[in-house]
Every structure is written in structure tokens, then in C-alpha cells.
Amino acid sequence: MNKFWVVTKQVYKKNVCSGSWLFLVVSPILLAAVILGLGTLIDNSAKDAKLAVVSPNVALVKQIDKATDAKATAYTQTRANRALRNEKVDGVLTFDSSQKQLTAHLTTRVGGQTIETTGITAVLNQLSMQLKAQQLHLSGTQLAGLLAPAKLKTSSVAFKDGKRVNKDASTDSVNRGIAIAITVLMMIFMMVYGSMLAQEIATEKGSRIMEMLLSSVSATTQFFGKLSGILLLLLTQIGVYVVAAGIAWPLLRNQAMVKSVLDSVDLSALLSINGVQIILFFLIGTLSYAVLAALTGSLVANQEQVQQAVAPLSILGMLGYFGALMAQAGDMPVIKIASYVPFVSSSIMPVRATMGFTTAGQAWIALAIATVFLGLFTWFTVRVYKANVLVYKEGGLVKALKSTLTFMKAQ
């Protein structure tokens, strides 16, 4: 066990201090900080626009002030023109009541703050309706009934075991976002850490250092030590993001950008998702791809062939990625079958679960299949690793695997 931890620490320390891994961890944090910093700078630098409303109607000015982000103040025509010329206001709103239909004119200053016209238009429409109601001698009740909009109720439903289940639309949107996040994270971690593990094994084979290492440490210990070291790197990266999010949250929750996102999303919908299953699928999927990377890394002859070792990971990863995207569109038969196939099931089944296309029991079955496959695949990979770790023949992954299988049968 001591030798196992020695190998684990060696792999972990070697990579955790490397510039490429530090850049991998820090770059998303810096990118998020730059985006939030720019948003904060824009929010703080933007001043409220000032609008001069040429009207003696104090109630109308207050309505416009509430309906728009601009600070609306009552002015006379002369004062409004002078204020606009002296850049004291950003716009002047005037009314023309000489016609039967209410008209208004907004004059804005070039180079001034932008004045949002949506709220102003809504107030003017309301005022115009009131004037027309007076001309037609309609009461307030009659006008309210005339302007009452039609009501359209919407609902989302899903069918589980032949039974209709009502779903909240906000829940569906949150689930869709979580499904996309699962797919992207799985793809990123699989490619990055799978390539890192394959590179680790191929580099040692290319330098012929394995001949010395195996004299003191068994191949099995080497295999699981390297695998554990890479997984510790993954957990370290996740831990850094958790700590960074915890430190930054007191500042983030007061940002206008973050508030708008939180206000538009019902986070209580997260309670409808089996988070334990998602985490387990993520772990099993990451482990499966890591073991595959170790297998392919042991089959190449040197570091220059690492791209060959990463190719199977890329192919399976892309299949899982596109399968997950297809799963969001609908529960097609091919997607149902693929959600139980190891490697791609780790990407597809969580998406089907979050979208409500499958039951919790079916998700547990897929998870059990993936777990059993991981155990058998790890046992097979250890045997291939032991048989091929000191083989330096060049000829491609397929030829190396055939030679290794032949050698294993002969033993």
C-alpha cells in the first residue's frame, strides 16, 4: 500500500505543479472574473438618463418616471430646450393635443444617455385609451372590460409508465440547462484527464523508465497509482471551483447580472432532479474513460503516438455528446438503447433523467450496468497493461491490442 501511495503522490505532484494544469484550473476563474467585472463596470458607469417632460400634468410625469429608467421631470418648453442645449437633460418629451388622437414627440441628444421608449409608449397608449373613452362616453368599467386581454394558460406534461404527469415549464427549462451542463462537463473532463493519463503512461514507456520502476513496484500498483493520481487532480480542480464559488458568492449575489438570472429561473425545480444519480453517473463515466485512456496509453510505443491513444476517447466522447444533445430533443428508440450502453450511457442517461424521459428505476439499472462494466473493464485493462507495458513495437493500437490478446491467451 505504501508503494501505491508513492506512485499516486508522484503522479499528483508532477501534474499539480505543471503550468498546463494550473492554466486549466485558473483560466475559467479568470474568464468568469473578467465577464463579471465588465458587467459591474458597465452597471456602475451607466448613469440614469434625464428626461424633460413638457406637461403641466404632474400625475402624467410621475407615470412616465415610473415606467422608464430615465428620471422624468416636468419642464416648460423654453426651459426644456435650454436644458437640452446645455446638456442638462438627455431628451425632451412634448405632446400635441390639438388633434383628436394623442401624439407625442421625443427629442434626444446625440451623445447623451439612452432613453428607453417602451415604458413611455405604454403610458401614452393608456392615456390615449382614456381620451378615446371620454370621447365615446365610456365608463371606467366599460373601458376596463374592453381592454381586458384574453387569457392563455400553458402547461407541460410528461408520460411515465403510461401515466400523464404535469410538469412546470420553469422546471423543464432548468432541467434542460442542467442537461447541457452535464454534457459539456463530461466532455471536458473526459478529454482533459483522459489525455493526461494516456500522456503519463506513454511518456514513461517512451523513456524506458518503466523497466526500472517495475523492478520495485508491480505493474498493477503502477496502474492504480497513476489512475488515483489523475483522479485526485480532478477532485482538486472541482474543489478549487467550489471554494472559489463560496468566496465569491457574497459579492456575486448582489450583481445585477446574477440577480436577473436567479429571478428568471425557479431554482426550486432542482429538487425534482435526482442529484445522487447525476453525481454517480459523472464519477462512473469519468472513471470509465480514465481506464480506457490507460488501456490505449499502454498500447502505444512512445509519446509521439499519444494522439492515437486519445482517438478512441474522442470518438466515444463525441458519440456521447451528440447522443445527449439528441436526448434533449426527444426520447427516440436509438437514444433509449444508447442510454444503457457503457461509456455513452454516462452522458445520455442523466440527460434523459433530467428531461423526465425515464424513471429513477431505469436510471439505476443503467448505472448498475455501467458499474459492472467498469469493474470488468478495469480487470481486463490491468491484464493488458501488465502484458504490454514493456512492449515497444510500433504498428498502431489495433495491431498492438491483437498481439497483447494473443500473448495473454498463450499464458
UniProtKB/TrEMBL annotation:
Main location per the UniProt record: membrane
Location in the cell: Cell membrane
The ABC-2 type transporter transmembrane domain, residue ranges: 21-380
InterPro entries, sorted: ABC-2_transporter_component, ABC2_TM
Keywords of this entry: Cell membrane, Membrane, Transmembrane, Transmembrane helix
Membrane-spanning residues: 21-42, 178-202, 223-249, 269-297, 309-327, 363-382
Task: Spell out the Pfam families in the cross-references.
Answer: ABC2_membrane_3 (PF12698)
One annotated GO molecular function? ABC-type transporter activity
For this entry, the protein name equals Na abc transporter permease
Provide the species name. Answer: Lacticaseibacillus sharpeae JCM 1186 = DSM 20505
